[in-house]
């Protein structure tokens, strides 16, 4: 597939504004942020973002086995209760038209995260969905790495 258009060049200021917003969601640690962004990207099928956030997760210290098993996170014991609550929330918000954002998921989330963290986590999820939609819509794919 050939990239349809270079959306960054076409509207760089808007893209820069989206990227800058990341700085305002600092209550979520980098490692958790990376697995949440990766999981959202997996659900949406965004090749560019899966590649990018897998690398970011590795760089933030995420073990390879957890990355390998992220798509089946419910089945493995590698994720703690807070991470499970965040992953469940990420899936619900990403697939919000399916079941909404059920109260039990929110309650589970609020047992592990402050109100600020819940807002930041939800903003991260919403923004990741927006990035996925841009990359997928315009056929933005990762470049092959040599190592």
How is this fold's topology laid out?
Layout: H1 7-10, H2 12-20, H3 30-44, H4 47-59, H5 64-68, H6 81-94, H7 96-99, H8 103-110, H9 115-137
What does this structure look like?
The protein is mainly α and 147 residues long. The protein has a single domain, classed as AhpD-like (Up-down Bundle), CATH 1.20.1290. Helix content is 65%, strand content 0%. The longest helix has 23 residues. The model has no long low-confidence stretch (mean pLDDT 94).
Features of this protein?
mainly alpha, AhpD-like, 9 helices, 0% strand
Any idea of the CATH class? Mainly Alpha
H/E element string?
HHHHHHHHH
CATH topology: AhpD-like
CATH architecture: Up-down Bundle
Annotated CATH homologous superfamily:
AhpD-like
Helix content: 55-70%
Label the structural class: mainly alpha
Approximate shape: globular
**Termini, distance in Å?**
23 Å
How many alpha or pi helices?
A: 9
Give a brief outline of the structure.
The protein is an all-alpha fold and 147 residues long. Helices cover 65% and strands 0% of the residues.
């Amino acid at each position: 597939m050939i990239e349809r258009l270079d959306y960054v060049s076409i509207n760089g200021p808007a893209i820069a504004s989206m990227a800058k917003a990341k700085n305002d969601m600092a209550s979520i640690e980098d490692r958790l942020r990376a697995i949440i962004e990766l999981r959202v990207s997996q659900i949406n099928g965004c090749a560019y973002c899966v590649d990018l956030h897998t690398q970011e997760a590795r760089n933030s210290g995420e073990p390879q086995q957890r990355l390998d098993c992220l798509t089946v996170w419910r089945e493995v014991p590698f994720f703690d209760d807070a991470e499970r609550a965040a992953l469940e929330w990420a899936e619900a918000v990403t697939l919000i038209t399916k079941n909404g954002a059920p109260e039990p998921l929110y309650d589970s989330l609020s047992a592990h995260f402050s109100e600020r963290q819940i807002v930041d986590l939800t903003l991260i999820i919403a923004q990741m969905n927006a990035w996925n939609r841009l990359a997928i819509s315009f056929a933005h794919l990762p470049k092959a790495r040599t190592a």
